[in-house]
Structure formats: C-alpha cells, structure tokens
Description:
This protein is 15% helix and 39% strand.
Amino acid sequence: MNKTIKDFSFKKAALYRILVKGKVGKSWSDRLSEMQVNHEQQPGGEVFTSLIGKITDQTALSSVLLTLYEMNMTVISVKMLSEIE
C-alpha cells in the first residue's frame, strides 16, 4: 500500500532534503544533524547547497531549520524523501 502524506508520522525518523541558497560549509554538518552537504552551481554562477540526511523527528528538523536561520541562509525547500522505519 502506498503511503499518503497523512500516513507519515511526525514522531518517526525520515530522510530529508533541504535546499538552501548560498554555500553552507561542510564543517557545519555537525550542527545540521550530520546531513551530507553538497554544493550545486547554477549556469548563472549562483550556488545552492543541498543537505540530505536522516532527521530523527520534527524537533530535530526544527533545530536544523533554526540553525540555517541563524546562519542567515535562505531555505528554498524542505522535502521528506522517505520515512525510516
């Protein structure tokens, strides 16, 4: 059975992809729940950072987003890729 959005739990771990405008240094991985940090340069030269990794629950997700806010990073998107059982 395919899961719909309403089937996901806010209390379970999930794999997320967060896209931000600008370059987040790989050294920030510790503060960002050990997410993988990848940089993507667009044809016009603009740089985006893709953060991919397991986030344990919504509290941890909020913490990552707060850290990005404190770094003055612009969050473009947050996507749950899959729930982790």
